[in-house]
Amino acid sequence: MIRNQLLVCAGGACITSGEKSVKDVLVDELKKNGIEDEVQVIETGCMGACDLGPIVVVYPEGTFYQKVTVENAGLIVNEHLVKGRTVSELLYSEPTSEKKAQTSGDIPFYTRQVKRVLRNCGVIDPLSIEEYIARDGYFALGKALEMTPDDIIGVVLDSGLRGRGGAGFPTGLKWKATRAAQGSPKYVVCNGDEGDPGAFMDRSVLEGDPHSIIEAMAIAGYAIGAEQGYMYVRAEYPLAIERFEYAIGKAREYGFLGRNILGTSFSFDIEIRIGAGAFVCGEETALLRSIEGKRGTPSIKPPFPAQSGLWNKPTLINNVETYANIPQIITNGAEWFRSVGTAKSPGTKVFALAGMVQNTGLVEVPMGTTLRELVFDIGGGIPGGKKFKAAQTGGPSGGVITPDYLDMPIDYDTLKEIGTIMGSGGLIVLDETSCMVDVAKFYLGFTVDESCGKCTPCREGTRQMFHMMEQICDGKGKDGDIEKLTKLGKCIIDTSLCGLGQTAPNPVLSTIRFYEDEYRAHIYDKKCPAHVCKHLLTYSVTADKCVGCTACARQCSVHAITGEVKKVHVIDQSKCIKCGSCYEICRFGAIRKE
Amino acid sequence: MKSLEELKRIKEQTLKEMDLRQAKERGKVIVAMGTCGIAAGAKDALMAIIEELEKADIHDVKVVQSGCMGLCDKEPTVEVAMKDQPAVIYGDVNDANARRIVREHVQGGNVVADLVIKRENI
Ligand SMILES: Cc1cc2nc3c(=O)[nH]c(=O)nc-3n(C[C@H](O)[C@H](O)[C@H](O)COP(=O)(O)O)c2cc1C
Ligand code: SF4
Ligand code: SF4
Ligand code: SF4
Ligand code: FES
């Protein structure tokens, strides 16, 4: 008889922070106490609050233990399970009130979320197809097979679901076009490339709830008339690949994949294709070439994949999170789906909250949620009492949201209006210590490296822009640079072949739009207002604060600081390499950085 | 897997195994697992309660453990706190008494008067 279940988060972040050894301790301690038959240990996918990992939740109480270590994991068994005493030191405490949270229901990070895409993540054992079924899994496939393909497409159209891979194209229209296209066989492809460096929602779904994607792809296959599906995942996601592969095997065993699914004439199967992790391979035409075993370079659209995709056959390609919505739409209907979100962007969106924010991790909220709710209510605000400066969305293809737009409901269209994009859902919070020119340079550098080189505007243009950005950050910016960047950026957008080049200038254009004064300070005043760009900084000693303790002089690795004991020290600017060590070490606040 | 019927069977079966993770709103049974309680046999009471609930097909009542309630001479002690009803603490809860408490109080709705050692004030 099982009296308790321990759910141990085995998502990527928790594994990195030591989940495996924590789990081993739990299992060992259960054995030592002779209660291994009464208490079950289950590993789940990501529970969302990744910076609190490793996380262990004890049921039926739902007690939420965080930052569990090898040293204190034993307490969960010896105290909680044997003696019935909650291990208070492992509970989460609210940073402001310091109130201890007993369950995840007491943590604001969780209570504000609406879990649809992530409804099974962290709740079920991803390796158990039975647990997926218990949560209504594969019932949508059963229902779909009793509908006509056109009816299914009708429901997806009515739901208003838009592609979560970035562009927000209506999913129903894509399905309709692929169904209507001439040619056979047709293919279903899932884009699990997830190239945005700040994003990991697709990985979490694949790791935490793989069957939801298998079910959705099978439904899509039936709807568009395909018998073969491909799951494209990047090689950097070995755990996602492993769990998805295992799930495919189970689905075949249970007859949800293979011939004559659920006793009908419909047959469908899925194969995994592993990508080498080039950003451009997330672009659909490049991705399809990569599946064919060719080099992943984009091609001109039209023709769209719906007309001519894999091996020139009609191909449906959707993102992981897009598919994750499908089974629930089929089960609960279009109206249900539209019951949250905005009129033009119904449903929820998963964001990967990161950067200068108290709580980081995966959050799923209704479309139309404001940035203020995301950053302050769910994210817990900016640590260290710093000021919120901006949020970057859409990764290397996106731009910034400024404090002026904190209360704007976030959806595909509102973001576009202010010059950024939803992208896949990476959301990086920046505080007053971030330099916007430096941030834009970082993303541009990423695209320069990832440009496939097929077309000149992207290959050469982004490189030129990057060079100018470097010059600006190094204090060599020239009058007219802002105008040049803007002009070149627009030209690259207009003339690049694929989405990579067409969006690469966005981070620069967006920061110029909202933070032109910062660019100007770099170019004309040779100052970095956020004190980030090294070459624009000067370190100097404030004479009346310096007590002559000599700490800085001893710290400086290039011997730029001179001075005698108990006398004011001086920094030789020609020797200083601006490493900041003296600034860090001076206990009297005598080193000035400006 | 050939039919939805089969799918439903798996769902029902697995839901039972996942039962501990479902929200349980109707009430809770709290077993005191302090050193004194464990020495007096609280573990047997705990397992008996879980088994009896399962037998009675009751899934909306949580069984949780607590530390010592300070009624050491009456251990094992068990508190039954059903929603919207005053909580009742029972003493000397051995295997048989534990099963009675589930059947009569949790299932039947009648306090097991002869085992009560304390009642919450109304
Ligand atoms: C450079 C580039 C990278 C992309 N990377 C991804 C990605 O990692 N994952 C993804 O789903 N879509 C990515 N896309 C978008 C895809 O081309 C495509 O629009 C998407 O997979 C369609 O699915 P959806 O309609 O469900 O969003 C990328 C596009 C571009 C231009
Ligand atoms: S825009 Fe860039 S990534 Fe796209 S095809 Fe041209 S060079 Fe390649
Ligand atoms: S560490 Fe600060 S106080 Fe000490 S000598 Fe350097 S500047 Fe002066
Ligand atoms: S910033 Fe670094 S190099 Fe410059 S004076 Fe201070 S310690 Fe020396
Ligand atoms: S990986 Fe454990 S909470 Fe995200």
Give the neighbour order of strands across the main sheet of chain A. 12-11-15-13-14
Provide the domain count of chain A. 5
Strand content of chain B: 15-25%
Biggest sheet: strand arrangement of chain B: 2-1-3-4-5
Please give the number of β-strands of chain A: 19
- Averaged pLDDT of chain A: 95
Mean pLDDT of chain B, nearest integer? 87
The helix/strand series of chain B, from N terminus to C terminus, equals: HEHHEEEHE
Instruction: Indicate the percent of residues in helices of chain B.
Output: 25-40%
Radius of gyration of chain B, in Å, reads 16 Å
| CATH hierarchy class name of chain B | Alpha Beta
Rg of Cα set of chain A:
27 Å
Bound molecules: flavin mononucleotide, iron/sulfur cluster, FE2/S2 (inorganic) cluster
GO molecular function (chain B): iron-sulfur cluster binding; metal ion binding
Organism (chain B): Candidatus Cryosericum terrychapinii
InterPro entries (chain B): Thioredoxin-like_sf
Protein name (chain B): (2Fe-2S) ferredoxin domain-containing protein
